[in-house]
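Per-record layout

source: marine metagenome
name: DNA repair protein RecO
length: 245
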Amino acid sequence: MARKDIVEHEPSYLLHQMPYSETSQIVRIFSQNYGRVDLIAKGSKRPKSKFRSFLQPFLPLQLSWSGKSQLKTLRQTEIHGQYLTRIQGKHLLSAYYLNELILSFLRMEDPYQNLFALYASALHGFSESNPIEPILRQFEILMLSEIGYAINFETEALSQKPIEADLNYVFIAEQGFVSKRKHNSSPFVVKGQVIQAINEGNFSGQETLVWAKKILRLSIQYHLDGKELKSKKVFKAMERQDGSK
């Protein structure tokens, strides 16, 4: 989408904010029609700033901004839509994880309308304390597809033969699913019926949830090229703490 000098009332969510000066901040947002955008919120650190109460993560906002450079100037903020019930605990950590994925992978000022809609839906699910894992897996799968790193859950990577329910496969992050017959030594073996369930978005089975997490984790780690997300470090610490109880 071509840049516009002035954008009015754009549905958006705040992802992250950082100091810019003694009184101002840079706010990094995810918007419906412009994707990732960085804005200067002038005077937002002042106690009586018109932006101060609105610039919070996970609030559904309408933002207006202007500017020709990559760093725009925030002009107006307002709440758009319904306040969500406060997101808490692991659901809150999961919401911050989605923010980190967006900041790490999405290109600046490219539209991702489908992903924006799924992000809004995910926050709604977190606010109602819905099961976390299906929400995360659906978002990860769509995000990878939107940025050009889609996982092919339908066919083998080398032969392009359809995935068969009664066969076993090995997942290789840089290739995809390969028949176990060609990788007999790999411990990472997943059933064809599980791959099919993931492809259908059917996460009702525990085995499917477990393998979907492993597959998506491998793929995301590969594309992060060695970088580790802060929220993932916290997840791991919480898992170790839960396991010691």
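summary: The chain has six helices and eight strands. The domain at 6-79 is CATH 2.40.50.140 (OB fold (Dihydrolipoamide Acetyltransferase, E2P)).
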